[in-house]
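Morning, I've got a small favour to ask if you have a moment. I'm working through a protein record and want to make sense of it properly. The fold is given in discrete form, as structure tokens running alongside the sequence. Can you walk me through what the tokens say about the fold? Thanks so much in advance, here it is:
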Amino acid sequence: MPKKFIRRYLPSHITIRESKYLRIFGSLLHEPNLWHLNRRSASGAFRIGLFFAFWPVPFQMFFSTAAAIIFRVNLPLSLATVWLTNPLTMPPIFYGAYLVGSTVLGTEVDYFAFELSWSWLIESLSTIGPAFILGCAICSVFFGVLGYFSLDWVWRVSVMRAWKARKSNNK
């Protein structure tokens, strides 16, 4: 069942409450609905986490936490899902988003060499920036919705299988 699988890998509520980056939320983190794991809260958290994972901004965890509090979905799962984009996966994911944006805008794909400098960042905003931002927005919405419906479907199927197994064991 997804609940047991998900719960095995999630951080505890104590770990999240004590995070120095999330202390800004104060007593809002004591809301019980943020810690319950059911189909609705898990699917919603997955949607929020995937949505913010494709945002090319620092502090994605902050935005994910705020959205989880507003929509009252599982906070640990929302935070864990944001980490889909981590330092190892960010380059290919964001390059893929850039390709999506270039395709939608109908612009030619510019091949570029990344530099860790302020001048390169400012210059790239005018050249590859529009395609990159549009691609991130499209991927954010698409994968957020896909993740929501996928986890909802997996959860429903696993519950139906558990019911069938329980029914066959009672005969």
User: Anything to note?
Assistant: The chain has a mean pLDDT of 86. The chain has eight helices and no strands. Helices lie at 2-9, 13-17, 39-53, 60-71, 75-82, 90-105, 118-127, 129-170. The CA atoms of residues 106 and 131 lie 9 Å apart.
